[in-house]
Amino acid sequence: MGKKYEELHKLSRENPDKFWGDIAEEVFWYKKWDNVLDDSNSPFFRWFTGGVTNTCANAIDRWIGKTGEEELPDKSDQPAYIWESPDLGLSRTITYKQLYEEVNEFAGVLKNSGVGKGDRVIIYMPMIPEACVAALACSRIGAIHSIVFAGFSRDSLAFRIDDAKPKLLICADAGYRAGKAVPLKGIVDDALDMASHKPELVIIKDRGLAKPNIVEGRDVFWKDILKEKGEDFVECEKMESTDPLYILYTSGTTGKPKGVLRDTGGHLVALYHSMGSIYDVRDKDVYWAASDIGWVVGHSYIIYGPLFKGLTSIIYEGTPIHPDAGVWFRVIEKYKVNCLFTSPTAFRILKKYPEKDVFGADLSSLRAIFLAGEPLDAPTYKWATKATGNKPIVDHYWQTETGWAILAGHLGTEKVITEETESLPENGFKIKPGSPTWPSWGWELKIVDEEGNEKPAGEKGYLVAMPPTPPGVLLTVYGNDERYIDSYYNDKKFEDNIVYTTGDYAIIDEDGYYYVLGRADEVIKVAGHRLGTREIEEAISSHESVAEVCTIGVADEEKGSVPVAMVVLKPKYDGNDELKKAINNIVRKNVGPIASLHRIEFVTKLPKTRSGKIIRRVIKNLFEDKDVGDLSTIEDPSAVDVVRKAIQGK
Q1: Sorting pLDDT into bands at 50, 70 and 90, what band is 493?
Q2: Sign of the C-alpha dihedral computed for residues 424, 429, 432 and 438 taken in this order
Q3: Among 580, 554, 555, 578, which Cα is nearest to 567's?
Q4: Domain 445-519 carries which CATH code?
Q5: Any idea what DSSP says for residue 300?
Q6: CA-to-CA distance for 235 and 600, rounded, in angstroms?
Q7: What is the SS3 assignment for 601?
Q8: pLDDT digits (tens, 9 = 90+) for 265-298
Q9: Where are the beta strands (DSSP E) in 449-598?
Q10: What span, in angstroms and rounded, lies between the C-alpha atoms of 373 and 560?
């Protein structure tokens, strides 16, 4: 373990006031904090209490001389965002000065439409600059944005509308992906018909890709409302550090999605520090998080993180393989990208194509690639290393709830050792494929068994974190403090101890490197996207033929994992291909295309415990051709053979 990292990490745990307080001095505050950490109401940890700041001021205003910090460079003419849409053949560069003007203008729209501090705004948009402008405008006036992934269905959107109760909703006529327009406004209309809550206003960015239906008195085009209600300048709302910035919904194992509520000050300080200490960014760098703004990576490292450091952030609309498999690397060459953040799935997809179709672009600007979202396998690591010219491929691990890395190779703190070597460096860190290395700042992690006892090196257990969690981690579940505690701090194995449970299995090796093995609960990660089995099962169960269903994620070479379903039909129904197609169509409609079932098998019974709980582990292991493990609690052992034969096609 590197000495510099070890010293700093120790400080972050033993003296968080000094560690985080020193970092917080580097960002802009209207008023400094009274306390760095308030843990008096654990597990509701509050950072920089009494401090007053604004997210938008830190992302934009301070880089164009609007905060009175004379020591900062003027970045007015530097690109803040670069938008690239290869399928459409379009690109756009927005400087910090231009972004300031556009965000102020749209903040005026929001304010003059009755949106104020604490009001919620839903953003259901594709990967276009206006989505980032809308989010920043919300943060400028103190409104709470909730960005919904534009691939989600009307049902998913309707739930979020009813939970967040937004004052208004912002959308586009369509996105554009894999060579075709993907209409969005119709989904919005259907969701609003379904939802009990009715936003007062719907603002539509008309891209000329689809003809949206217009509801008189409710719907208005972006360009028209800018003319009517836009402002040249809107003052930043002075926000308490603990005031909410955004809500981002994440799938759970039971019940409906949870609204992760992020704070203002802790989020700012954590992301600001992560950019340098983990990603090793430098002044005027171009940073590309190849994700979507509908996911936490897009929030943290497309919209906000790069701008907190005064960098240039890439907004990419499209896929890694369209119009061809070399497009990503050409984007890196075109804009001289210095740091790329993506998922292992992206490289697994590219790996399927001939090298001549992928390689060839000049990647000399690229210093490092960071991967997250799912475990990184050794073959993909080796391919990515070759494809990028032996650039460091750094794995890291985090969650929607945490907002930034729990485990990471800290490239900005320690030198990375890429050479094949048996010994560990005294300074620096060695890349071990599949390991996201060490705990990040403020995280004290343990791997424990079912009773909460710490496991020795090399043994699998539950990954948990000791309190307090660092800045940037969720404040609570929106509107539901009880669910926050039940979801993350109420694991019975720890009795009265307050411990953050990640819900993942992990091991630690003899060198102190962590390996995250996947979900211990019932969430499926498809290509880095987190899907709740409950949501998928509810969709399947809505079909009139279905009596019982179990959905699990099974390993997939390309996507990491894919959802499969074991379905017990009601009497008189025939389990044929037509029915499989109908069930899958319901899943696509109710949850979204990302949840499409890789496989559906019809069975007469499912393996259950004596208390009636389906033993998912058994089904998963059968699909992956592994030992089914302990069956001592199973009610009917013959159910195992029923499932096995269905999987084997017998």
Answers
A1: low
A2: positive
A3: 580
A4: 2.30.38.10
A5: I
A6: 55
A7: strand
A8: 999 999 999 999 999 999 999 999 999 999 999 9
A9: 461-466, 476-477, 500-508, 514-519, 523-526, 529-532, 546-556, 560-569
A10: 9
**Residue 346 tokens, joined:** 């992206």
Count of C-beta atoms within a 10 Å radius of residue 170? 30
Query: What is the token pair recorded at 212?
Result: 């949206």
Q: Contact, 126 vs 174, CB < 8 A?
A: yes
Q: Give the per-residue pLDDT at 535.
A: 78
Q: Which two tokens stand for residue 182?
A: 């993907």
Q: How confident is the model at residue 254 (pLDDT cuts 50, 70, 90)?
A: low
Tens of pLDDT, residues 586-609: 999 998 999 999 999 999 999 986
What are the beta bridge partners of residue 219? 202
Strands (E) located in 303-413: 312-316, 339-342, 368-371, 393-398, 405-408
Task: Give me the amino acid identity at 4.
Answer: K
Partners of 178 in the β-ladder? none
Helices (H), 491-604: 533-541, 577-590
Distance CA 349, CA 383 (A): 11
Concatenate the DSSP letters of all residues of 161-229 into one string.
HHHH--SEEEEESEEEETTEEEE-HHHHHHHHHH-SS--SEEEEE--SSS-----TTTEEEHHHHHHHH
What is 523-648's CATH topology?
Answer: GMP Synthetase; Chain A, domain 3 (3.30.300)
pTM: 0.87
- Separation between Cα atoms, residue 175 and residue 648, nearest integer Å: 40
Is residue 107 a contact partner of residue 235, using CB atoms and an 8 Å limit? no
Those residues with Cβ within 8 angstroms of residue 602's Cβ, 6 or more apart along the chain or in another chain: 567, 568, 569, 575, 579, 646
* Burial of 147 per CB tally in 10 Å (0-12, 13-18, 19+): buried
> What confidence score (pLDDT) does residue 228 get?
98
- The whole-angstrom distance between residue 24's C-alpha and the CA centroid of its chain comes to 24
Distance (Å, whole) CA 525 – CA 541 = 21
Q: What is the DSSP letter of 426?
A: S
CB 94 within 8 A of CB 102: yes
Q: Do domains 445-519 and 523-648 have the same CATH topology?
A: no
Cα 250 from Cα 147, distance rounded (Å):
11
HSE, CB side, 13 Å, CA atoms: give it for residue 602. 16
Q: Using CA of residue 442, residue 446, residue 451, residue 453, what is the dihedral sign? A: negative
In three state form, how does the secondary structure of 128-145 look?
CHHHHHHHHHHHHHCCEE
Q: What are the extents of the domains in the chain? A: 445-519, 523-648
